[in-house]
């Protein structure tokens, strides 16, 4: 039997807060056939399993060991959970393979999850303000005339 | 029509306003006059300014259209999320970037808040601005990543 929307949201909170704030990606909260549709950091296709999410978490936690996830909005109904969030941390390890900037960085995004009937994360989509992040790093200048 | 159906209808109606031939005379029975429209790079305050922003966007992008993706609506009584694809052609200078006549195809999400009367009171937009800027030649990367 499917879990309630509140229960689904609680699982997503546990999954994302644990992953971002401690680095532990809770495989037990993911469906075995989970799909990651988020196109972040140059990724351009849907990938199965947890590897791509682990890759993103690992890259950012290496770049910003003090990275912290803050939930800004939560919307959930039926099998869907939507979180608007911000991530803040200090770039001591280098984001996306760039040299460390030493800057304190903050960027925002939205994550959507579809839960399956067993209360596992089945699909994930993310929209991330990558341009804002890159502008803070100084690797993308403002547009002309801005 | 229950509250969720009304919220869905209101969100669809809002996106339809961006179409180039849509009527922009908002009725204040579905959008609050003090609506807040919040992007990562701009904060638009009030219905008049939102209308101006939509008019500007429609003039910059020919055949502008927001298509809500399949299963892209998540609705609660006082909030909702919509996931969409924005398409059009950049025919006018935008944020200092000259017209490219490039077709654009950009994804994003909008989170809506409704007041007790079901009017939109806040819209927060998460758009893939990096992709948009890349498609209209608006950025130069200083580093290969």
Can I get a quick summary?
The complex is a heterodimer of chains A (146) and B (145). Chain A is built from three helices and six strands; from the N terminus they run αββαββββα. With 146 residues, chain A is an alpha+beta fold.
Describe this entry's structure for a reader.
The complex is a heterodimer of chains A (146) and B (145). With 146 residues, chain A is of the alpha+beta class. Helix content of chain A is 27%, strand content 34%. Chain A has 3 helices and 6 strands. A 6-stranded mixed beta sheet of chain A has the order 2-1-6-5-4-3. The model of chain A has no long low-confidence stretch (mean pLDDT 92). With 145 residues, chain B is an alpha+beta fold. Chain B is built from 3 helices and 6 strands. Chain B has helices spanning 3-16, 47-60, 129-135, and strands spanning 31-38, 43-45, 61-75, 79-90, 103-114, 120-127. The longest helix of chain B is centred in the N-terminal third of the chain and has 14 residues, at 3-16.
């Amino acid at each position: 039997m499917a879990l309630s929307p509140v229960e689904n949201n609680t699982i997503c909170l546990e999954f994302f807060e644990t992953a971002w704030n401690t680095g532990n990606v809770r495989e037990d909260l993911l469906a075995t056939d989970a799909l990651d549709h988020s196109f972040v950091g140059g990724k351009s296709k849907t990938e199965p399993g947890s590897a791509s999410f682990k890759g993103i978490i690992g890259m950012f936690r290496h770049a910003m060991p003090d990275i912290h996830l803050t939930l800004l909005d939560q919307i959930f109904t039926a099998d869907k959970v939507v979180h608007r969030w911000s991530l803040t941390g200090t770039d001591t390890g280098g984001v996306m393979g760039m040299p460390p900037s030493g800057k304190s960085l903050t960027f925002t995004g939205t994550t959507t999850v579809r839960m399956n009937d067993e209360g596992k994360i089945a699909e994930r989509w993310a929209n991330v303000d990558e341009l804002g992040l890159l502008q803070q790093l100084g690797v993308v200048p403002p547009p002309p005339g801005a | 029509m229950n509250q969720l159906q009304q919220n869905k209808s209101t969100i669809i109606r809002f996106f339809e306003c961006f179409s180039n031939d849509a009527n922009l005379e908002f009725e204040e029975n579905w959008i609050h006059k003090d609506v807040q429209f919040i992007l990562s790079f701009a904060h638009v305050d009030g219905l008049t300014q939102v209308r101006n922003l939509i008019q500007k966007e429609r003039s910059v992008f020919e055949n502008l259209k927001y298509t809500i993706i399949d299963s892209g609506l998540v609705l609660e009584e006082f909030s909702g999320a919509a996931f969409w694809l924005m398409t059009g052609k950049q025919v006018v200078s935008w944020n200092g970037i000259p017209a490219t006549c490039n077709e654009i195809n950009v994804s994003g999400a909008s989170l809506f808040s409704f007041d007790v009367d079901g009017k939109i009171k806040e819209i927060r937009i998460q758009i893939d601005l990096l992709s948009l800027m890349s498609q209209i030649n608006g950025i130069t990367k200083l580093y290969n990543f």
